[in-house]
Each structure stands twice: as C-alpha cells, then as structure tokens.
Specification:
- The structure is a single chain.
- This protein has 868 residues and is α/β, with parallel strands linked by helices.
- 45% of the residues lie in helices and 17% in strands.
- The protein has an eight-stranded parallel beta barrel, surrounded by five helices. It has a six-stranded mixed β-sheet with strand order 17-16-15-14-21-22. Strands 1-2-7-5-6 form a five-stranded antiparallel β-sheet, with helices on both faces.
- Residues 392-396 have low confidence and may be disordered.
- Bound molecules: phosphoenolpyruvate (PEP) and magnesium ion.
- Magnesium ion binds at residues 701, 740, 761, 763-764.
- Magnesium ion (MG) binds next to helix 30.
Length: 868
C-alpha cells in the first residue's frame, strides 16, 4: 500500500484522532478528534509531519503520492461543503495552517482565504450577494500571501508596503478602521497590492488556486526552518527532526457582518484556575484581527448578550471538550452568521496556582481521579506559590531593599527596620547574620549549591547567586552592571526564580496558601512512601518547615549556630587556643549556647526526629581574612594582630574542602564534638522536663573509614552513659553517619555495622565523584550544560548514572549488614523532583530539603509512588 500522507477530518469521516499527534501534529489530531465527537469543525485535511521530513530529506520536494492524495481529499471536502475549490460559480476557500507535535505559538506561518482570483471573486460576490465582504476577503488574502508566501515582508524598520497602501486608503476615505472601507476601496487595494508585488518581486501574484495552495503549503514547511522556529525549538528542547504537519481547512468567516465573530477562550481561568469561561472575542472580524491589537476584543461573557445562540452552543462545546479531554482547554472559534465553528482545541497553559486549583476541582467534580490530580501538577512549579512574591502576577520569590555591601551593615540597617539586599562578591559562613537580616542576597560568584544559595534557600530568602554581570567595588561601596552604577543605599529588587536584578523598589507580599493547595498536599501525603524532612538550623526555620509539612529534621548544620551574635568570639577563642585546656575553656562558654539552640529546635520539632550533624567546615571559615576584621578580632580577644594573622595563615589549606574538616576535626580535636554531644543530651533532658519529646539523631560528617565512625560513636556512647548516670535518667538517641565520600559508599556494609542510619550528603558526594569543586564549578559547568557535555548541573539534579550508583550501592551494602538501616538524603538534591523520584526507586526512607522545598518534595514523592 502506498504511504498515507493525507488524513481527512470533518468530512464523511475523520481519519485521525487525538492519539495521532506525532503524525498529525497537535492541531490536526485535535481537529480530527473534535470532528469525531460530532463538534462543528469546518471540513479539511492534514498533511502529515512525514511530508515535512520528506520535504527536508529530499531537497524540498514532496512525496510522489502526495498530489493525488491531496486532490482526493479536496474532492471529499468539496462534497461536504457543497462548493468547489477554484470554481468561479461556487467557490470553496481554504485556510492553510501549521501544526507541530507540540504547540509553537506564532513561530510558523498561516495563510487564510486561499483560492481567490478576479474571476472567482466575482463568482463569490454573486453567491454571497455581499461585495464588500468578498473584496475584504480577497484583499486580506493577497496581502497575506504576498507577505507569507512570496516574502514581501518588511525587514526591521522598513515600512510594510501593504499596510502603507491600506493606511493611505483609509486616510483618503476618512475612516479609522478597515471594516469601514467601502467595497470599491477594497477592490482598488487588491489591484494595488498585486502591482506592488510585481514591482518589488518581479513576479506576478499567482492566479491559479492550485498554485496558491502548494505555495502556501511550501511556506508552512519552510517556516519550520525559519530563524524564529529554530530558536524556539532550541529553548524548548523540541527536536528539529520532528517536522510540522499542515492543516488545510475550509474557511469559515467571522467577518461577514454583525452576527459573526471570532475569538479565543479557555474553559477555566488560566491564571487563577477558577471554573468559569475565560477569553475574548471580536464581532465581525477574522482571526488575525484579535491578535493585531487594532480593535480591543471584548470579554467572552459579553457574547452571551450579543450572540446568545452561538454563546450557548459554545458553552456546551466547552463542557463536552473538558469532559472528553479531562483537562482545561484553550480554544479558537469562529461564528459565521450565528453558527459556531471550532478551529482548535488544546490543553491550556496555566500558572501554578491555577494548576493546583484545576487539578483539585476536577477531582472533586469526578472528572479525574485523585491520583491523576496529583500527577497534574509539576512539583517544581509549586515554588511559585511558596515564597513572598512581588505584588504583581507571575513573579515568585522576590525581594526589594537598599543595597549594602557587608554583613555587619546588613544587620545594622535591618536592626533599624530598613529592608536591605546584601551584595557580596561571594558569601562565607561569617556572613550568615547579615544574610539572615537581609531581604535578599546578590552575589557575583557561586552557583546553585554554593554557600549563599544553600543558606538562602534554607532561610526561604531570595537569592541571586553567581550574577557574573555585577562588578563589585567594596572600597567605593558600589557595583556596576553594564552601564548602570548602583551605590550603597540605592534600592534594588531581585527575583530569585528568574535571576533578575532590577533597579528600584517593587512591593512584595507573603505567599498565602489556597484551600486547594492544602487538599492536594493531603492527597500527596496519603500516596507517598518517602518521608520528607527538612534541613534547618534554627527554631524559626524548623517552624516554617513544619508548617510546610516537614516530618522532622534531616540535617541541622551546627556550624551555622556558631556565627550568630557573640558566640563567634568564643569559637575564635577556641580556635586560637594553643592546647586542649585552652580549647576546653572556650568550649565551656559555647556549650550553654548550643544547648539552648538545641532546646529551641527540639521544641519546634516536638515528637519528630532531629538529625544533628556535628561540626563540619574547616576551622579557617570561622576566622576573618581581611586585615580590618583581623584588627577588630585582635581588639576583642586582647591579642596582638600578629598572633591572629599567624593563626589564620596556619589554618590555610590548598584544598580546604578536602582538608581538615568533618569528622577529621572530631578525631583531632575530640573536645569540640564532645561539647556538642553534651549539649545535645542536656538539651534533650531539659526538653523532657518541659514535656517536649526530643528524638535526637547524632550524625557524623565526612566519614571515609570504619574507624572514624567507630571511635566517634564510642565517644558519643560514653558521654551518653556519663550524663545518664549523672542525671539519673535514660537517654534515647541514635548515632549515624553521612555518606558523602565515595569510599564510604563502597564500604557501606562495614560502616553500617556501627551506624544506625545513613544520610547521603550528595553535595559532597557529587563534588568528590566528579572531582568538581562545589564552589568553583560555576566557571565551567554552565558551558558544559550548554554544550550538552552534561545534561544538567549535577549539583542541582542528582547524576543518577554515576553518583546515583553510589547511592544505590551504598544503600544496598548498608542494608546487607543492618537490615533495618534507615537511609535518607540531605544534599540539595533532596528537594529536586527528579532526584526525589530516584530516591523513591532506590528505596530510601526519607529525603531532607530546605523548608521552602518541603511541599515540592512531598508532591514529587507522591508522583514517584504512582509510577508503575
Ligand atoms: C552534603 O554534602 O550533601 C551535605 C548535605 O553537607 P554540606 O552541604 O553541609 O557539606
Ligand atoms: Mg557535606
């Protein structure tokens, strides 16, 4: 059998259906489906995407069989419409439209009113009795064909020759809009348009309808490789070899008089999700008038009064379409002499808020199941709903404030009630106070998992990290971005989701959760298998996370507690001490403070597990590196500056992230970890006195050998025993480890013998598996992603192929020696939907992520559980 390249719709039968979008494109497949449903669709046919691929594979020629198949299809359409293509006595006019597998709005070409010449227009006038209308249609056709098919399209600032002639004509007749031009004027315009085509292109306008048809089909196929379309596909990751289909359809007219109209509508409001028709229409107009912006369209509800019958029909069709597609539809329609015609339907694009409401409402209306509702919402989109927003639509996670260049300044200004944006070349842990005080953070260096971004995410702060266009001059208290200079105290606004930095102030408001959001989350919780915990270091963050549904803390980074207020002084005193005795003295000052921190967190997480990680970063992060601050520190500690300088130099490491950090600190300075462990146990006893249930899980970072964990676990158990004996009470706690060094994953079976739980630190595990520094990868990773060397930034979405193997293997090996080993993940990946899916597949017990990502992880975990 010959290849089939042409599929009919709306004729005696529709040959396609909605499942055939790869072959017929989205528009063609849905036209066929609507026709099948018995909805009013003007008859037509679709040239498949295979014609397009053939066209490009064969030097822009068509398959041999095409011409005969098109002729046959036209014959069927003619029969259905009772008119003949190219017949002056009873002409049939056609439209030619593109239609790729996925919608590429406005990227390809359309030709309307095709099949006219001077002789045929005369016949059309006779048939319709409306000369003005016929010349209007003819004028539009010649203009569109000249532009789209023949290429007489103005470049950049050139004047459009057709529009120019049209304007002149309107001036001559003293009218403002096209529809007020008389038939004679339109007739003159047709001739003038043809003349300008001939003059400019040295080619005549084709009078033969068949030639017009193939010219238009060719123009649509060519537009698949137009600059606009190529760029769009690059951005949207649409393969270039898919090709477009072409839909040839009988024309219906919305411009035949006051009982005609054309419009676009959604079955529900795409920005709020409200279940009411949303859209606009224009009376006595053709499709392009709605988008052209010359006349302002009316809200669809007005159609009820102006064209009541057509409106009622349309409302009915909307109901049928939703019921059939089980989703909100985005439609185009035309009303010709009070009769409704459907020209397109597809799933409508929507905001996150609308997606949630529509999914929940449709489940309540029993149009879809709860499971389907859970799968309808993209978890990452929830981000739009969780952060404070600019008080304008569609700008999530945003902040405005006055520029400051140091953490101290940020705290000082914030204490006075000033909203500030902290602008730093990069942030270090010592900036934490300033980051907390600021409304938002802007850094010139760093990436998604650099310190600033991680901390900001944890705090729910808006952060634009690694903004390379910003050149900061701390000495002059200013930064430059392109030609703009911003000084300390100037207002800027930053948008953490788009990465935009704007001059001036934009008001924001707190995010509010809808009733439907709560419902969807409840359904997700009933479905998921993975638990969702949070990474939080303060009672405030813990409270936020609990409000977002966190089921415990998966990572409390204790180092963050060392920076607040005066405690950094005690930390520095400890670092500067020459011996154990000196360190212990300083640590004794820190212990009550830590204990209080833990009490606060246990209270916020009453009854839920709290994983507390012992100190992790290299000590040099706690001492200042700038001369002025070193001087200040010397003053505070009453020591010569030289001593400070010498200590800072001594702490210098070439690769600090591979250096003296994590459990290596615990092994070499056991008194530090011991102080922390005492603080944890004492806090848990104090909590119990207040009827708070503390469930501490003590976690050792950066373990690479069994002995590291065994020795430190022995210390923890010993301290527990001592405190139990002293306080005459029992302590319940667990001891576990992070798995963030590849070696630890490989020997996980041995490690599990002394670990009650594992938590994969996939930030370090990614860093160490790839050998990419977390803090410096911003210099090359974006290019790697652009070039396709990596599909994604592995610090954002877990590299399942490589790093994921270590997670899988570590889990399996760990559970081979400890069957009930609890396993979680607490790297930034814990809040990334694709990584959450992976964690579900691997059989982890929980994911832990920053508070603001908790709802995202809950929904992603539910979706993962629904995958068969
Ligand atoms: C990790 O490495 O994944 C982790 C959670 O620890 P941190 O980011 O504090 O190194
Ligand atoms: Mg780590």
């Amino acid at each position: 059998m010959a290849n089939k390249y042409v599929y009919l719709f709306g004729t005696r039968k529709s040959e396609g259906d909605k499942e055939m979008r790869n072959l017929l494109g989205g528009k063609g497949a849905n036209l066929a489906e609507m026709a099948r449903l018995g909805l009013p669709v003007p008859a037509g046919f679709t040239l498949t995407t295979e014609v397009c691929t053939h066209y490009y594979d064969n030097k822009k020629t068509y398959p041999r069989e095409l011409s005969a198949q098109v002729d046959k299809a036209i014959g069927e359409v003619e029969k259905k419409m009772g008119a003949k293509f190219g017949d002056p006595k009873n002409p049939l006019l056609l439209s030619v439209r593109s239609g790729a597998r996925v919608s590429m709005p406005g990227m390809m070409e359309t030709v309307l009113n095709l099949g006219l010449n001077d002789e045929i227009v005369a016949g059309l006038i006779k048939k319709s009795g409306d000369e003005r209308f016929c010349y209007d249609v003819y004028r539009r056709f010649v203009q569109m064909y000249g532009d789209v098919v023949m290429g007489l399209r103005p470049k950049d600032k050139e004047i459009d020759p057709f529009e120019h002639l049209l304007e002149k004509k309107k001036e001559k007749h003293g009218v403002e809009i096209d529809s007020d031009l008389p038939a004679t004027a339109l007739k003159e315009l047709v001739a003038e348009f043809k003349t300008v085509i001939k003059k400019r292109l040295k080619r005549s306008f084709p009078e033969d309808p068949k030639e017009q048809l193939y010219g238009s089909i060719g123009a649509v196929f060519s537009s698949w490789q137009g600059d606009r379309a190529i760029r769009y596909r690059e951005i949207e990751s649409i393969p270039h070899n898919w090709g477009t289909a072409v839909n040839v359809q009988s024309m219906v007219y919305g411009n035949m008089g006051e009982n005609c109209a054309t419009g676009v509508a959604f079955t529900r409001d795409p920005s709020t999700g409200q279940n009411k028709l949303y859209g606009e229409f224009l009376v006595n107009a053709q499709g392009e008038d709605v988008v052209a912006g010359i006349r302002t369209p009316e809200p669809i509800i007005k159609m009820k009064r102006i064209l009541p019958k057509a409106y009622a029909d349309f409302v009915k069709v909307c109901g049928q379409l939703e019921k059939h597609y089980k989703d909100m539809q985005d439609m185009e329609f035309t009303i010709q002499q009070s009769r409704l015609w459907m020209l397109q339907t597809r799933s409508g694009k929507r905001t996150a808020a609308a997606a949630v409401k529509i999914a929940v409402d449709m489940a309540s209306e029993r149009l879809i199941t709860r499971k389907e509702a859970i799968q309808r919402v993209n978890p990452s989109d929830l981000d739009q709903l969780l952060h404070p927003t600019f008080d304008a639509p569609a700008s999530p996670g945003a902040a405005s404030g006055k520029v400051v260049f140091s953490a101290e300044e940020a705290e000082a200004q914030a204490a006075k009630g000033e909203p500030v944006i902290l602008v730093r070349i990069e942030t270090s842990p010592e900036d934490i106070g300033g980051m907390h005080a600021a409304q938002g953070i802007l850094t010139a260096r760093g990436g998604m998992t650099s310190h600033a971004a991680v901390v900001a995410r944890g705090m729910g702060k808006c952060c634009v990290a690694g903004c390379g266009d910003v050149v900061i001059d701390y000495d002059k208290n200013m930064f430059k971005a392109g030609s703009k200079t911003v000084k300390k105290g100037d207002w800027i606004s930053i948008d953490g989701s788009s990465g935009e930095v704007m001059l001036g102030q934009t008001p924001t408001k707190e995010a509010k959760f809808s009733k439907e959001f709560g419902t969807l989350m409840k359904w997700a919780d009933q479905t998921r298998k993975l638990k969702v915990r949070t990474n939080a270091d303060t009672p405030h963050d813990s409270d936020v996370a609990r409000r977002f549904g966190a089921e415990g803390i998966g990572l409390c980074r204790t180092e963050h507690m060392f920076f607040e207020g005066d405690r950094i002084l005690a930390v520095r005193e400890m670092i500067l001490a020459d011996d154990e005795k000196g360190r212990k003295k300083a640590l004794a000052k820190l212990k009550p403070i830590q204990r209080k921190d833990f009490e606060g967190i246990f209270k916020a997480m009453d009854g839920l597990p709290v994983t507390i990680r012992l100190l992790d970063p290299p000590l040099h992060e706690f001492v200042p590196h700038e001369a002025a601050q070193q001087k200040e520190m010397a003053k505070q500690l009453k020591l010569p500056v030289a001593v400070i300088k010498a200590k800072v130099n001594a702490l210098h490491e070439f690769n600090p992230m591979l250096g003296h950090r994590g459990c290596r600190l615990g092994i070499t300075y056991p008194e530090i970890y011991q102080m922390q462990v005492e603080a944890i146990f004492e806090a848990s006893i104090n909590a119990r006195k207040k009827k708070i249930k503390a469930l501490p899980e003590i976690m050792i970072p950066l373990v690479g050998t069994t002995r590291e964990l065994e020795d430190l676990k022995a210390m923890i158990d010993r301290v527990a025993k001592e405190i139990s004996a002293k306080k005459k009470t029992k302590l319940s706690y667990q001891v576990g480890t992070m798995i963030e060094i590849p070696r630890a994953a490989l020997i996980a079976d041995q490690i599990a013998e002394s670990a009650q739980f594992f938590s994969f630190g996939t930030n370090d595990l990614t860093q160490l598996t790839f050998g990419y520094s977390r803090d410096d990868s911003g210099t090359f990773l974006p290019e790697y992603v652009d070039k396709g060397i990596l599909a994604e930034d592995p610090f954002q979405s877990l590299d399942q192929e490589g790093v994921g193997q270590l997670v899988r293997l570590g889990t399996e090996r760990g559970r081979s020696t400890r069957k009930n080993l609890k396993v979680g993940i607490c790297g930034e990946h814990g809040g990334d939907p694709a990584s959450v899916h992976f964690c579900h597949q691997v059989g982890l017990n929980y994911v832990s992520c920053s508070p603001y990502r908790v709802p995202i992880a809950r929904l992603a975990a539910a979706q993962a559980a629904l995958v068969k």
